[in-house]
Amino acid sequence: MSRFWSPVVHDLTPYVPGEQPRISQLVKLNTNENPYPPSPRVQAAIAAANVDSLRLYPDPESSALRASIAGYYGVAAEQVFVGNGSDEVLALVFQALLQHEAPLLFPDISYSFYPVYCKLYGIAYRTVPLDADFAIDPASYQQPCGGIIFPNPNAPTGRLLSRAAIEAMLQQHPDTVVVVDEAYVDFGGDSMIPLVAQYPNLLVVQTLSKSRSLAGLRVGLAVGNAELIAGLTRVKNSFNSYPLDRLAQAGAQAAFEDDAYFQVCRERVIASREALVAGLAALGFAVLPSAANFVFARHPAHDAARLAACLRQRNIIVRHFQQPRIEQFLRISIGTAAECQLLLSALADILADGA
Ligand code: PMP
């Protein structure tokens, strides 16, 4: 607390990011990073970068990268926005598109950054409870609102909302922006990007942090009607802030140009997830259906906080949330097949000796 802070800063409950340990022997299954390295083309693009060019500011429009992304998704470059990670893209989305008199709606169990942005930017919001199976209930979004945002698949539950349900939502709210945060979509969902041609109120946000193994490069994107993208660009340019740096533009572009590598990694993660789900079920865990690169699981007979602490003692980190309704769940990121196996063996030990 400080007398120098503005009142809104006093009231903020900042997001607590997942632990980023400094020792490397840990099995790190807590922040949904990809266990595989980025495409070799990313390495080549960054190695080929001309260091002398770093004297110069980067292209503020990220034109080459946006053209690549537009080509990849079959949209126009004016329909693509990029930022330093989807967290930054979302920050601009909240400021440019979701600040209205009527409250913004999002699920009560969801990405914990959403309420932080609302408080920071003074946006009215209302959380909408997930249903009994921890799924988003589209019917409960049939209420007047200033916008809707949800991750699909949702985080931390991993549950996917169908295209039909999202289309119904878009049709019910033709004058309201509906933001689908597809941070995890490549691991089991269909992207809603093909719908942007039909729904001017749809904005899809994605990240290169998960399925393209580039959490450290900080690149996120949004695709939508050119009018929505122009709103984001207007806020970004009014600060003259947030251009992607030269290396990030080059690396991200290379990642989109190596689809074969992307598909192989994605499929490996999905295969490890299926094996992990089966292994956890064999140990007595109840696992929610996951379309993401993590699973959300609870054991009916063992306290989740204790399990997380016991795993930590064995140098395995998973995520546990102290939040009503989900405090008995663990969120476990999908590691390599070997890491998933280590986790399962550790859990088997912990469950057997109760310590
Ligand atoms: N949306 C969701 C739902 C997430 O879980 C995350 C990752 N924590 C992000 C957005 C932000 O990811 P990044 O800033 O790395 O693109």
List keywords for this structure.
seven-stranded mixed beta sheet; globular; binds 4'-deoxy-4'-aminopyridoxal-5'-phosphate; Aspartate Aminotransferase, domain 1; alpha/beta; Aspartate Aminotransferase, domain 2; 355 residues; 13% strand
Describe the protein's architecture and organization.
- 37% of the residues lie in helices and 13% in strands.
- The protein has helices spanning 7-11, 40-47, 63-73, 85-97, 113-121, 163-172, 226-239, 246-256, 259-282, 304-313, 337-353, and strands at residues 27-28, 80-83, 104-107, 125-128, 147-151, 178-181, 202-207, 220-224, 286-287, 294-298, 316-317, 330-333.
- The longest helix is centred in the C-terminal third of the chain and has 24 residues, at 259-282.
- The strands form three sheets. A seven-stranded mixed sheet has the order 2-8-7-6-5-3-4, sandwiched between helices. A three-stranded antiparallel sheet has the order 9-10-12. It has a two-stranded parallel sheet with strand order 1-11.
- The chain has 355 residues and is α/β, with parallel strands linked by helices.
- It is built from eleven helices and twelve strands.
- Helix 5 (113-121) links the parallel strand 3 and strand 4 (125-128).
- The mean pLDDT is 95.
- It is globular, with a radius of gyration of 21 Å.
- The chain folds into two domains: 7-37 and 260-353, Aspartate Aminotransferase, domain 1 (Alpha-Beta Complex); 40-258, Aspartate Aminotransferase, domain 2 (3-Layer(aba) Sandwich).
- Bound molecules: 4'-deoxy-4'-aminopyridoxal-5'-phosphate.
- 4'-deoxy-4'-aminopyridoxal-5'-phosphate binds at residues 85-87, 111, 151, 155, 181, 183, 207, 209, 215, 220.
- 4'-deoxy-4'-aminopyridoxal-5'-phosphate (PMP) binds next to helix 4.
